[in-house]
């Protein structure tokens, strides 16, 4: 991943987006208590999972794979199962009275059973595709795994085994959102975690707006880039309207 060519495009043929199994929606509804989480995860048209197959053996989270010295010639691949509907919420807080000090950020990944349930289903689905189907077996001979972590393709792997694998090897894909979430406006929204109103104005601070992915009140269940562009263009129109008194 240190080679400049890597940044010109990932070595892959396709990326897939998929929902969980229809039968899993009932379980997820029970695992999520808030109305927002139920609405995000429980819609039948929601895309819960993104799966990427890379023609390179890489896991930046764990040095053991690098120590194995697997060849970077396409003979080893890796898979990424990405959660698109996270219900875990972190927080950003002030670390000191010095405004030059960075904030304290707790991302709180995989804190909910809903998130872990979806990731486990994604991992099992991908492992079955690659090691349990004729198409997968045609190019994937076996799964390489760390000695103390069960292979995802091991049918005896329990939920706890997969959770341990996620905790050991899981990493962020760096699409953070929601730290300045948008709400309708007013003191009640501020108390409930709202930071900006529907015109991107920060509650209680005159002349300050936030215009980026941090204003998203809920995850997009997709890549966020196009929506960030849309927020920027909409906010530009709003700022012009406010300046002209429209």
UniProtKB/TrEMBL annotation:
Please give the Pfam families that the UniProt record associates with this protein.
GMC_oxred_C
Q: Where is the Glucose-methanol-choline oxidoreductase C-terminal domain?
A: 86-232
Q: Which domain of life is it from?
A: Eukaryota
> Which InterPro entries would you find in this protein's record?
FAD/NAD-bd_sf, GMC_OxRdtase, GMC_OxRtase_C
Q: Which family does the entry's similarity section mention?
A: Belongs to the GMC oxidoreductase family.
Recorded protein name is Glucose-methanol-choline oxidoreductase C-terminal domain-containing protein
Species in which this protein is naturally found: Lepraria finkii
